[in-house]
TrEMBL record, chain B:
Main location group: membrane
Family listed: Belongs to the CcmF/CycK/Ccl1/NrfE/CcsA family.
Intracellular or extracellular location(s): Cell inner membrane
Keywords on record: Cell inner membrane, Cell membrane, Cytochrome c-type biogenesis, Lyase, Membrane, Transmembrane, Transmembrane helix
Name recorded for this polypeptide: Heme lyase CcmF/NrfE family subunit
Organism field: Phyllobacterium salinisoli
Membrane topology value: Multi-pass membrane protein
UniProtKB/TrEMBL annotation, chain C:
Example GO BP: protein-heme linkage
Role according to the record: Heme chaperone required for the biogenesis of c-type cytochromes. Transiently binds heme delivered by CcmC and transfers the heme to apo-cytochromes in a process facilitated by CcmF and CcmH.
Protein name: Cytochrome c-type biogenesis protein CcmE
An annotated GO cellular component: plasma membrane
All ranges on the Extracellular side of the membrane: 29-144
One protein family per Pfam: CcmE
Xref: NCBIfam families: PRK13254.1-1, PRK13254.1-5
Compartment(s): Cell membrane; Membrane
Membrane topology according to the record: Single-pass type II membrane protein
Naturally occurring in which organism (per UniProt): Phyllobacterium salinisoli
Keywords: Cell membrane, Cytochrome c-type biogenesis, Heme, Iron, Membrane, Metal-binding, Signal-anchor, Transmembrane, Transmembrane helix
Keyword Transmembrane helix among UniProt keywords: yes
Segments in the Cytoplasmic topological domain: 1-7
Length: 392, 663, 144
């Protein structure tokens, strides 16, 4: 589509199109008020004349009914007399009204003027308060056709989901999507995706390990029997991978079998190559398990695992945490920043700190006003956060 | 075009209707023709803007524009196209927009057909209509804006509820709204009359077509809603006295009363104040109904608390219009010239009788519907008032009313001859007695109440035919003359007869199905047979089937006649929609003439059987056919030439017109 | 008839109809008001009165027993107390264990609730409004 060569162009023209139509509509609406007011004055028939018309019609009706024999002549005569009385009265009123008629306009100019002016003034200021003229229309088909490179993560996921809904047997697609779900804390989706990937692509240490982690996450971090079984499969599939062993050890510790856990890791350490980068950390971890006074009761945590497996050399979480703290601080100083609040809420969610996210949403909600506040609330709602959940 | 145009058009419509509310009324007060003339073009423009707005919202649903919050919350890209469109009014915001669309549609109709109205009355009517429009548009813009945007736009919508994806449910709200909102025109006319302090027989003539139009639509909407509940819920019932149903039934009862009292006012210039009050009350009940349903107050009073802004706004509008109009009524009623009195035994007496019972019946329904809400608000006790309450209060009130129906059209205006009319109705009465005797004989005198109910139905139907026969002179004049006179009868006479006949048909259906209908809940295994209404029903077993977005278990049944020959197959199903993990029951309905077999499937039994609920519903379709006849009656009446009064010769030469009139 | 008599006739008729309606309403209210209760709300008078009630709560897990033919037994609970319910008929589509339900019927002398109607769904949230409110008020269920 033409959108590809100049991404800003069509949006600008869509916006101009909007303002153009808005101006035309306002103009037409103002004319609807203005035209009758400037028309040359024509004398309307007096109200009584309209009544007379109805009574004449009733009279014809009585005549027709009488002719058809629907009513007897006596009733017809009575009805005619009654209608005649009404006609006389209406006629009398019509005459009186003519005399009381005041020629218009004088002294009412300001009413007319303000009525005409109010149309553009009120509507444009109301729109300024409630509208969002900068948001373009986004029909789904058009968004799907857009260049995938400039989409957000969510959009990419949605694209992948749409693709997989059409081609549920694309194992590669599931394989790509599964770890993304896991990282985004959508464990149920991750379980589903890993299962599909295993079904279509076969078992691998990576997939079974991921499935195990997802299952554990679904259970709120508890390593269930299902998860433990998966870790054992992963360990069997790759005898040199330390990650499944850490998870198994953690599972054993949750059952209170610290000794078994330490033995398992020690066993692995003994067989490990001397130049493995995680040797030292593994040693410390075993130390900590054997000596609960030193160890945190939880045993090796996710950070240890990642550091030990040398997956993530820089401490990503710590970095994000410090960034978030800075942002948080800045918003305290300078709260009128809707984009900042949005970023903060989202960051907390990504860090799986839902309560903090809610607190941030509440603070932002208090600090902002008007459309900005609505914007923030709507944004949070899109992420699944509702202000109503916040305990006052 | 961008969605924002919809939002802009909505706001522009709000501003214009504000002008429409003030300028014409001010002009009418000052006798300024030019200011009054503003009413007509603004009424058209407001309607056009709301149409634009509605079309744009619908387009956003059609193309799944998820940058609109309302679309995100109520649509889904995989929904069938039909349900994307009907989804527009399947939610609070969209349905409020539809409500206003219909409101402004009626405003434009008044502007279009209003040439026969005195300019001041027209200006006031459209002005008052503008008040209603302004209030609701303001409500929408302030609290229920369907064009709220969401940034960044999600990639998928939330709702794909299969239960709401039904064609009956999709069509009946617009029909019901056409009825509810149609009464707003009567309301505007009544308030305009109160403002002017001038009300006469001509006013009734102008209001009647609007009342009829709204009544026809409301009748259709209620009948359709009832049939939808009947076939979709699978409970076999056609009216549950559910608060939501009552909310639509109350304006119907009051509107029916209004239809009849406006007739008295038009012909006899009597009952003026009462008719104006009734016009106010009918629309007030419509408002009450719309909002009891829309705000969710009916399921619980607490719904107001969940969204205080919206709830209070609704309450404010209700108070403003109901309280304001009644206060205006109380303030102005004495200044209106009251109409003449009349003999109790006369056509107008019969119509007063009708009004008396209809409004009392409305009041009992209102009490039954609101009492639980009041009690919960005051004491916190949760109670429910069910069908027995309404059968016990509403039913007895309807009996004298129905018995009186055939008398009404036959009585003469001013002074009726009850005895003479009674003599002319002898045939109808004989037929009714015959029906009673027949039923008593067939049921060995066990169903006395039903016999009288059916007798009453026959009486109403035969009575309306008698009316037509007498008016075309059948039996008195030669057949050819009678035919000519029959054809030449005013359409309103046909309309009355048809509507009353339809009432009889509905009554016949109601009484038959409640008394002679059977219901059996049994466990059946494949091959089992069961006697139902002279037939044998054989259960053939379950077969799985797949639909476009569901799987189902179809229970197949064969209907065998006395000679064991298969007559019909009935398929009833239990569906499962995997997308929403929602099961639904699809009742199996087979129509024989006006009777129906109705089968719902229940749970599987251990050992291969299934629980089945089987109804035999004799004459059940008459309930809705009767409503259809009533609608037709209203429609035929509407076509009557008499309701189309011409406008007086235009203005330039008022004197000759007057001279002619006084001649 | 004189003017006064006519007026009296109309007013008298109207009052007569109104009196009839009021009488009907009072009688009907006396016979057909059904209170909504959850199991913990029930008092011994309620159980002994033989009046009709609407009983709401959750279908207790593991209590649904299908008897011979079309009879079904289950227990309705608000997690504080539970009441045994007997129902003869077809359960609604959305009847599930641990889901909200409203039953209507009366108590037998032994404290069993004999229901003649069972409703499982009042809105899309799968939780009848009355049940949700009562359970929230007791603090045993949170939801939105």
């Amino acid at each position: 589509m033409f959108r590809l060569d100049s991404p800003r162009g069509p949006i600008m023209s869509a916006r101009m199109e909007f303002w153009l139509i808005a101006v035309l509509l306002t103009f037409a609406a103002t004319l609807a008020v203005l035209l009758p007011l400037t028309r040359r004055k024509t004398a309307d028939a007096a109200d009584g004349q309209y009544d007379l018309e109805v009574y004449r019609d009733q009279m014809r009706e009585v005549d027709a009914d009488a002719a058809r024999g629907l009513i007897d002549p006596q009733s017809a005569e009575q009805a005619r007399a009654e209608i005649g009385r009404r006609m006389l009265k209406a006629e009398h009123e019509a005459k009186q009204q003519d005399n009381t008629k005041i020629p218009g306009m004088q002294g009412a100019r300001w009413v007319v003027l303000s009525a005409v002016l109010s149309v553009p003034l009120i509507s444009w200021s109301l729109y300024a308060l409630t509208g969002s003229p900068d948001v373009p229309a986004q029909p789904l088909a058009e968004r799907m056709a857009k260049n995938p490179a400039d989409g957000s993560v969510n959009e990419l996921i949605a694209r992948a989901e749409a693709h997989l809904a059409q081609n549920p047997d694309d194992g590669q697609g599931w394989d790509v999507l599964a770890p993304v779900y896991l990282r985004l804390q959508r464990p149920q989706d991750a379980v589903n995706a890993y299962r599909n990937a295993i079904r279509l692509q076969g078992e691998s240490a990576e997939r079974t390990l991921g499935l195990g982690e997802a299952l554990a996450l679904v259970a709120g971090g508890t390593i269930t029997g299902d998860a433990q079984a998966m870790f054992e499969r992963a360990a069997a599939l790759d005898p040199n991978d330390i990650r499944p062993r850490f998870m198994i050890a953690r599972g054993l510790m949750q059952e209170g079998r610290n000794g078994d856990a330490a033995d398992l890791l020690q066993n692995f350490l003994d067989k490990a190559p001397a130049d493995a980068p995680w040797r030292d950390q593994l040693k410390t971890a075993i130390e900590r398990i054997r000596n609960p006074a030193v160890a945190a009761a939880n045993g090796p945590d996710q950070e240890d695992v990642e550091a030990a497996a040398n997956m993530n050399p820089e401490d990503r979480n710590a970095m994000i945490n410090s960034m978030v703290a800075t942002l948080d601080e800045r918003l305290k100083q300078n709260p009128d920043d809707v984009e900042g609040w949005k970023r903060l809420v989202r960051s907390y969610l990504i860090l799986n700190r839902r309560d903090d996210a809610l607190a941030a949403l509440k603070r932002g909600n208090d600090a902002l006003a008007g459309e900005k506040r609505n914007d923030l609330v709507a944004f949070a709602k899109g992420l699944g956060l509702e202000l109503a959940e916040v305990k006052p | 075009m961008t969605v924002e145009i919809g939002q802009f058009a909505l706001i522009l419509a709000l501003t214009l209707s504000l002008v429409q509310s003030i300028l014409p009324v001010f002009g009418a007060w000052r006798h300024d023709g030019r200011m009054m003339a503003v009413a007509v073009p603004t009424a058209f423009a407001v309607f056009a803007l709301i149409v634009l707005s509605f079309v744009i919202l619908t387009h956003a649903y059609v193309v799944s524009d998820f940058s609109v919050l309302n679309v995100v919350e109520n649509s889904h890209s995989q929904k069938p196209m039909l349900y994307k469109i009907t989804g527009v009014w399947g939610n609070h915001e969209g349905s409020m927009l539809l409500w206003v669309l219909i409101l402004t549609f009626f405003g434009a109709l008044v502007a279009f057909f209003g040439n026969n109205l005195p300019p001041a009355l027209k200006a006031n009517v459209l002005g008052v209509h503008g008040w209603i429009t302004t209030a609701f548009l303001f409500f929408i813009v302030a609290t229920s804006n369907p064009f709220r945007r969401i940034v960044p736009a999600p990639m998928e919508g939330q709702d794909l509820n299969p239960i709401l994806q039904d064609i009956g449910l999709a069509i009946h709200p617009p029909l019901l709204y056409l009825g509810y909102v149609g009464f707003s025109v009567c309301f505007s006319f009544a308030v305009a009359a109160l403002i002017e302090g001038r009300i006469d027989a001509a006013w009734a003539r102008w209001v009647r077509p609007w009342t009829l139009t709204a009544w026809v639509f409301l009748t259709g909407g209620i009948a359709m809603g009832s049939y939808w509940a009947y076939y979709e819920l699978g409970w076999g019932g056609w009216w549950f006295w559910d608060p939501v149903e009552n909310a639509s039934f109350m304006p119907w009862l009051a509107g029916t009363a209004l239809l009849h009292s406006a007739l008295v006012m038009e012909k006899r210039s009597a009952l003026k104040i009462w008719t104006v009050l009734l016009a106010l009350l009918t629309f007030s009940l419509s408002l009450l109904g719309t909002f009891l349903v829309r705000s969710g107050v009916l399921t619980s009073v607490h719904t107001f608390a969940t969204d205080p802004g919206r709830g209070l706004f609704i309450l404010a509008i209700l108070t403003l219009f109901i309280g304001g109009s009644l206060a205006l009524f109380a303030f102005r009623a004495q200044t209106l010239s009251s109409g003449g009195l009349f003999q109790p035994i006369s056509r107008e007496g019969a119509l007063v009788f009708n009004n008396l019972f209809l409004t009392t019946a409305t009041a009992t329904v209102l009490i039954g519907t609101l009492y639980p809400l009041l009690l919960e608000a005051l004491t916190g006790d949760k109670i429910s008032v069910g069908a027995p309450f309404f059968n016990m209060t509403f039913g007895p009130l309807m009996i004298p009313l129905l018995a009186a129906v055939p008398f009404g059209p036959l009585l003469a205006w001013k002074r009726g001859d009850l005895l003479g009319v009674g003599q002319r109705l002898m045939t109808a009465f004989a037929l009714a007695l015959l029906a009673v005797a027949f039923i008593l004989y067939r049921t060995s005198a066990h169903e006395v109440l039903a016999a009288f109910g059916i007798g009453l139905a026959v009486w109403v139907m035969a009575g309306s035919l008698t009316d037509l026969a007498l008016k075309s002179g059948i039996g008195k004049v030669s057949a050819a003359t009678a035919l000519a006179r029959f054809i030449g009868l005013p359409r309103s006479v046909f309309g009355t007869a048809l509507a009353h006949f339809g009432l009889g048909i509905t009554l016949l259906g109601v009484v038959s199905v409640t008394t002679f209908g059977t219901e059996q809940v049994v466990a059946m295994k494949p091959g089992d047979t069961l006697p139902v209404a002279g037939y044998q029903l054989r259960y053939d077993g379950l077969t799985p089937a797949t639909g476009p977005n569901y799987t189902e278990q179809q229970g197949r049944f064969t209907l065998l006649d006395k000679a064991a020959r298969p007559v019909d197959t009935i398929i009833s199903a239990k569906r499962f929609y995997p997308a929403r993990r929602t099961p639904t029951t699809e009742a199996g309905i087979v129509t024989h003439g006006v009777n129906q077999f109705y089968i719902s499937l229940g749970d599987d039994m251990a050992g291969g059987g299934i629980v089945v609920r089987i109804w035999w519903k004799p004459f059940v379709t008459l309930i809705w056919l009767g409503a259809l006849a009533m609608m037709m009656g209203g429609f035929v009446s509407l076509l009557d030439r008499r309701l189309r009064v011409g406008a007086p010769a235009k203005a330039k030469a008022p004197r000759p017109v007057r001279a002619e009139a006084s001649a | 008839m004189s003017r006064k008599q006519k007026r009296l006739a109309v007013i008298g008729g109207a009052l007569g109809v109104l009196a009839l309606a009021v009488a009907l309403v009072l009688v009907a209210f006396g016979q057909d008001i059904r209170y909504f209760r959850t199991p913990a709300d029930l008092t011994t008078e309620d159980m002994a009165s033989g009046a009709r009630f609407r009983l709401g709560g959750l279908v207790e897990k593991g209590t649904v027993v299908r008897g011979a033919g079309t009879e079904v037994q289950f227990a309705v609970t608000d997690t504080l107390k539970s009441v045994k319910v007997i129902y003869n008929g077809i359960l609604p589509d959305l009847f599930r264990e641990e889901q909200g339900v409203v039953t209507e019927g009366h108590f037998t002398p032994d404290g069993t609730f004999v229901a003649d109607s069972v409703l499982a769904k009042h809105d899309e949230k799968y939780m009848p409004k009355d049940v949700a409110d009562s359970l929230k008020a007791k603090g045993v269920w949170q939801g939105n």
